[in-house]
Every structure is written in structure tokens, then in C-alpha cells.
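Dear colleague,

As promised, here are the two records you asked about, laid out in our usual form so they can be pasted straight into your sheet.

NAME FIELD: protein one
SEQUENCE, THEN STRUCTURE:
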Amino acid sequence: MRKHLPYLFFVISPFMIQVSRAQSAGDYRSVAQGNWSSIATWQMFNGTNWVAAVAPPTQLSGVITVRDSVIVTDDDSADQVEVSSTGVLNIQGTLDLFDGPGTDLQCDGRLIVSLGGTLDANDVANVTVVYSSTAEFDIEGGIRTAITFNGTNLQTIHGSYGSGYIGPPITLNNAANLTLTGTVGLSGVNFITGKILSQGNFIIGQYTGSGFTGQGPASFIDGKVVCIVYDSTPAHFNLPMGKGNEYLPLQFFVKVSPNANESGFAVTIQDSALPSFTLGSSLTKASTVRYYNISNPSNTSIDTASLQLSYDATDGVTDPANLRIAKSDTTGGVNNWVDLGGTGSAATNGNITTTVNFTSLGYFALANATGGTNILPVHFISFAAAVNKQAVVLNWKTAGEVNANNYTVERLGTPSNWAAVGTVKVNNKMTENAYSFTDATVQSSASYAYRIREADKDGHFYFSNEVPVRMPGGGKIVVASLYPNPARDVLHYSVTAGANDKITVTVTGTNGKPVLVQHSAANQTVDVVLKKLSSGIYFLNFTNDKTGEMVVKKVVKM
């Protein structure tokens, strides 16, 4: 099979027009919504013109371009499939991909593998599928070919029924990350760049070939991972997990009792405050920076289990010899921390493994042994800044203030250095604490950053995350005109603001997802082209790039 010819682009300000690549005899393109096996769905290029197809495309065809909604219901084959930005490929039967030169399936539109459907690789390991689209990738059936998620904007995989799976490990090459919703089974991930944001259930099984490569501080799983154990064979899950900007890989070892059914153990990292737990005599402090929740929804009987946790500078490990792992125990309706032993591998950054095996699951956290000096600092649950007229109001929440002394509010502005602008007393409670501070010493149109410096009684100190603030200035944003409304093809608008202010207009649907973005100067009439949008209700979000002020208007597209 021949390779694809490159796409050519010519820039004609202010629009970009894509010139189609040259066609070759044997190429196919969809001309209507329909079934893959129906010739009415396709046209074929005869070397000179596009003509009605006399047979549906197969792996012996040239490039197959899906421009409409095409459904695979039979056992079909293909090579060099291109799903355009307007196309939808819905696999309800089997689509068998063959390995020809170049990419075997390139998706810039939407790909659906429905319940009972299969995207197969014809038993060839070199079949390549590249998903570059920001449209949701729906998996309800099975995929037996490797897929590369390659994009510059956030991408999404969604599994509706919990039966969707991708056999070979996926490759993630998207610094804007990949979101997983619903329930999807993956055999692993080859991280090049980007994170998996698991908002649903990331299923990883106990079988040969499941695993991860390339993980690190910028490439890990943030969210829930469900570890599936099939039998009483000892299972070892090496999970490249993290939370926010913290890479915190963990290892979970578990052996279920003989004759136990297939079981799933859900693992998550939490950064919210725990309920109050009682410490045993061997522990003096449990970390509130974060905790780990490992659950056993099927109540499988466990013969033995152990856990290895990682820690970094945010955890406050200063005495690794006296670092321990604590586990929650709610026997008798009382919340207790149980000492599972362990010793930290080093100060500041390292790992620790339980030395006391356990047979029940729950919460796990780093803890300080009696006589130890680990700081395990105050946990910042949240920190936010808001502009209120000509002042900045800061609000933050913390937990674990056993050793806290005070909070200092620091501001970065002009000159470019951090300076204290106020001090707040602490409540010194292990449970959640809320604080507020107002900074009225700010200037119009200025940009700042804020952070909270927490000082312990023993002299150690830690910082919250940093939050940026831009004070309003310049002209107030006003949508002076917006017509016609309802609109059919073109909408005209005019926004008044400061003389040199720039305006960003984001058009969103009723689901809040952007469908169009454009930029313009203030104080002039501008057109926004709605011709390609479906009929319905949309919202225009006008944002002053200089001041951050935003005005929202509703429009109707006919």
C-alpha cells in the first residue's frame, strides 16, 4: 500500500484553507450516512473523477476517508482509514485492520466501538491507530490493536458498560492529558508525555503483559485505579499514580483466599482531610498531607497483603528511621490508626513498605513513630484568591495543625520578589480549618501571585500552592451590540472596553463545551460565522484579555 501524501496549508489572513491531498485510483470516501457494507455510502476515485462505488471498501482499497457517520455491522476489513473531523466511525461488528505503509487508522473525528463490536488487528502486531481528535472516544466493545493518543488538547476515553477494553497498552503522547470516564479496561500505558486523569474506573488486570513504561513526574495516573485479581496467585501491582503535580508511585501486593471469585481492589490517592482517628501507643502523628484509600467492594477474603508508598518534599519526612505506615481500623465502630511498621528509605524523598501484613483494607497514611521527629506538615486542602473591588480576598483551608505556629500571607508583584503582607493566627486543630485574609494594598491593572507560608513551632516552614491575580483596569467591558438574534449564518457584535484592550469570544453549547473561539480588538464591529453550527441555543462568552472581566450573552442559531 502507498503512504499518505502530506497535507498542504496556505494561510490567507484571517482564515486558513486546507488544500486536499492528491487522490489516487482506488481511494474511497463516504458521501452519506450509512453502513460500511452499503455501496450507497461510498464513492470511489477512478483516477480522474469520483464515481459511485460498485463495492464497499476493503483492505485492498486505497485510502478510505470517513466524512459522515458510518456504521460497521458485519465483518469488514480495511487499511489506511482516515476519519475526518466531521466523520464518525461506529464499529458494531468487526473491523479488521491490515498493516500497510503509514498509519492504518487515523482518527480526527469520532470513534465508537459499541457493545459487541471489535476493532481488530488481523493478528498483526504492527497495525497502527492514531487518535488525534478531541471528540470523545467511546469504548463499549473490544480493541485488539495498539492505539496512540496524540494531541495538543485534552482528550477523552469513555466506557459506558464496563465491558470496554483495549488489549495492547496504549501510548499517550499528549501533554494536555487524557481523561478517562466511565469504566475502561487497559492492559497498560506507554507514557511519552501527559497524564491519565482517571475520573471513572481505570481497570488493570493481573495477567502477563499488563504494565506501564515511561512513567515519571509528568506522566502518571491521577485518579482511581481498579486492580483485578483473577485467582489466588499472588498479585503484584506496580501503579504509576500521583495527585495533582505530585508523582507518588505505589506497589500493592495481595493474595486472595483459595477459591475466591474474580475481585477488584480500587486504589485512590486523596488530598482531603480524614475524620479524626485515634493513634495507638506506637504512633504520635499521622499525615494529613494525603492518604490512600484501597477498597474491596466485593468483600473478597484476603490471605495477606502489603503496600509500598512513595513520599516527596511535601510529606515532611525528616526522620526516615521512625517513619511508619498506618492503616485505618474501624472495628467496634471506633476509628483507630494501626501501625503497619516500615522504615523510610531516605529523608525528604523515598519510599516505605509495610512490615506487618494485613488482611483488610481501608485508609493508609504515613505516620511518625513514638519518639520520632518526622514533621508530617499541615495539609493545605484548598487555597483561592478573588478580586473584590480594589482588594484581593484570600481563602484557604487546612488540616493537621498539631504543630503549626502561624500563617504568613506572601505576595509576588513589583518589584519581582515575595513580600509578607499579613499574618494570621492558627486554630491548631487536626480537623478542617478555614481562614481568610484581605489584601487592600493592591493597584489597578497590576498582576500578583499569592502563597501562604506555614511556620511550625519547631522552626520548619512550608508553602501552599501559588495563585495568580490580575486587578481590573482599563475600560469596563460592555457588549454594545449583538445582532441578528436569532441568527442563521453570521452574527455581528461590538464590545466597548479600554482603547487597547483585546477581546476573546468563546462560543459554547448548552453543555458548556467550546465550539468556536475567536479574538478581536475592542470598540469595533466584528462578525462571528455560525454557518457550520447546528441549530440550537449557544452562549457567547466575551472576555477582556487585559482585565479578565467576562460577559455572557445567549444567542439562538436557526
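NAME FIELD: protein two
SEQUENCE, THEN STRUCTURE:
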Amino acid sequence: MIRKFLRLFKIVRVSVRYGLDEIAISGFDKPRISKFLDTVFFWRDLSTPRAVRLRRALEELGPIFVKFGQVLSTRSDLFPIDIVTELSKLQDRVPPFDSDLAIQMIEESLGAHPDELFARFERVPVASASIAQVHFAALKDGTQVAVKVLRPGMKKLIDEDVALMHIAANFINKLWADASRLKIQEVVQEFDKYLHDELDLMREAANASQLRRNFAESKLLLVPEMYWDYCSSGVIVMERMHGIPVSQIERLIEAGVDLKKLSSDGVEIFFTQVFRDGFFHADMHPGNILVSIEPETFGRYIALDFGIVGTLTDYDKDYLSQNFLAFFRRDYKRVAEAHIESGWAPKETRVDELEAAVRACCEPIFDRPLKDISFGQVLLRLFQTSRRFNVEVQPQLVLLQKTLLNIEGLGRQLDPDLDLWKTAKPYLERWMGEQVGWRGLVERLKAEAPRYSHIFPQLPRLAHQALTVASERDVETRALLALLVAEQRHTNRLMSFFAFFIGAFVVGAVAYQVYARVL
């Protein structure tokens, strides 16, 4: 408890030190409040630009706050450009930790000094993020690799912050009527799980291997190969990837990359991960995405940092596909029906009322490019609608919602004229045809064929065994019935004898009484 209190005190202290309170109330016409705060906290210096102060505060508060800043950095439609530009530095320019600590971590994890493991190891990190930092190196055979090393002390710091989040969630549940509907505690639990998963770099390596296998035949996405002999929970070694960060638009244009195609490819990659594989990269901020300029892979995306991935069940994929497709077709009635059928909205909800509410939220944004859409306003209206109809937030889809924000922000940077609806609709229609139509049936039969191929030759024997068992059971059943009938007959005879005995006894007793009186 003392540790939690100290952590809470640090959050408050850092917030005051960097003037986050001043940033929070800057959008309100409250000069008296600002003057009061400046008087109370007279010792702080607010001469530094607000965006710089916000970035430094998030960096000082640790990995959870840095990740929060990474999400904000993709929302140029919701936040001022100075804040978005400064927070973009959190994507891969978090202050690195000492290289001696990185070398010590490599020795502890892999059992040898980097000079013994590699032909070359660069002490200066090439990138530093909230959870780990990366050093370039070369294997003994000359293969160029990237060495990712976990930051020391991460588990303790994350445990403290997540504990505070749980306390805050419990507090909100008691004070806010909408808290139970929004499932805040479940959302925090999901966030807790994924943050701790990031602390195991072997899990990240396995995620990368799976994603690489899923896109092995793809011409859209590249995923680095993992070198398993150099991987552990604290250090992983992967293929070094060469490309331009997707956020550096001018460099991409100079290299001749088609930004419109790149934007469209990004949409297809996202929907392929979600609906085909049910396994998607869930931390797709610009710092984790490169674009290849190598001649043989020119214009392809390069994915990095696989610490957080999302998974969807077949039920989730089917539900989402129906909603997306109905949404893109402007079939708001089907959207409303799907919400009620899935249990997201109460069964007593009127379809026509929910349909009208969804239409009012979504209709204004169709047939318009990303640059003309305020998703902040759309999300606000959707939230108000969900509250009105008691629609429940699904914790298992929190990562998907986060990824959608990243994708939309990325698309806005690459091609503000992108028509998201026209780009995504054909892919979803094709996917639905593959899943529901005859093509989908054929594909599922192909998938199930290996499982049942060894059963077909055994069918005659299995059928004979089944008939034999049925026959034996039939004989046993007849024998049991005969036994029951015999037992019933025996019981009837006993009852008849017993009744005869009782009757004779009564008659004898009456005759005796009559005879005694006559005498």
C-alpha cells in the first residue's frame, strides 16, 4: 500500500511539475482557476512549450504512460498539431538506458558476452522504446541482425501502475453509473495481461514467427525472421530490416513510393489479419512500421515490435464481419439486429430505434475522405448512443479498437483523400463469399479432409461393429424385458397369494366370532 501511495504521489508531483493541470484546463475559459494554480505552484517553470512538457512528463512516468502518448500521437484530428508532433517522438525515441546494462542483460540471458556471441555489436542503441531498446549487430557468419533487450525493472514499475489502475477502476465503478456497462475493470484486466505479456520477449518472438508464417506468400507485408538460438525471455535476435519509417512522408515520396497504394495496402493488411487469420498486430503505431525500398520488395510494409497481438474467435470474426459489411452497405437495421442477437444490446431493445440512432451517427461520414471526417465527434456520438441503449463494451475487442485508431491515424497521414469505405467494402464482400458461399464450403471441406481421410477406409468395419453392438444391445434389451415380465408375474402371484391369505384369515376370524356367540 505504501508503494502504491508513493507511486500515486509521483504521478501527482510529475503532473504539477510539468504543468499538466494547466494543459488540461487550457480549453476552458477559467482564468481564475489558472491564476489560482499559478499562485499555489509558483515554483514551477511553464516557459517550455506545452507539448514538450507533456512528452517529458509521460517519459518520466514510465511505459504505460508512454504507450498512452503513442496512441495520442496518431490522432491529429483530435489534438493540436504541436502535441501530436511532439508525442510522435515517443514512438521510437524514448531515452535509452545505459549500454552496460544492456550488455549485462545479454550476458545473463544468453550466457555469454556480446563480443563472444556476435562478430560485431553496436553499443549505441538504434532505437529505444517504452519496454526495450534495440542494438544492431552481426552474427559470426556475417548475417545482419537486430538485438532487442528488455529494459531493467519493468515488471515492478508496471505492477505498480496497473495496481493504481485497478484502484481507479473500482473507484469509478462506485461513483459512475455507466461503469458496469463499460466493463472498466475487465478492460483494465485485459490491459494488465497484455502489458505483462510484453515483458516476455520469447512470446514476442513467437508472435513474430506466427505473423511471418501467415504472410509468407503475401506481397504486401514483410516480417523479420527470428534466430531462436539467440532468443530468451529478456533478449531476442531477429533479422535486420531496412526501410523508411512510414511517418517520414517526404522521404517516401523522394524514394518514389506510391502513397495511395500504400494506404490502400494498409487497409487490406489489417482486414486480412483480422478476418482471415484472427491474429493481428495490435501495436501498429508509426514507430513500428517501415516501408521497404529494396528493389525486390519495394513498397511493402515492414512490421516490427510484436509484443502485443490480438486474437479473435470464429464467433468474433463472424460478428464483426457482419457489422462491418452492413455498415459499409449502410444497412443500419442489420447493424442493430446484430447487436441485439449477440447480446451486446438488451433483448428488449427496439430494432427500429437503435437503427435510427446508428444512422444518425454514421450517415454524415459516408462518401467523404478521411481529411473531412472528425472521428472524435463520431466516437462521441456513438458513445452517447451506446449509453442510451445500454450497449456493453466487449473487453476482448479492446485491442482491436486500439488498432483501428492506429490504422485510421496512419491512413490519415499517408492519404487524407482515402475513401476508407470503398477501399474496405470489396475485401469484406470477398471474405464473406469465401466464408459463407459455396467457395467457403469447399475450402472448409478441404481443411477437414486430412482429419477424416484415415477414417474412410475403416467405415465398413466401423459400420459392422456398430450393427453388431446394436444387435447385441437389442438381444440384451429383449432379455431384460423378459426378465422384467417374469418378475412382474412372480410379483403378481405373490400378491395374489398374500391377498388370498389375508382374505382367508379375515373370513376365519369372522366365522370364529359368530361361532363363539352361538355357543
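A couple of things worth noting about protein two: Residues 459-518 form the longest helix (60 residues). Residues 2-90 form one domain.

Best,
R.
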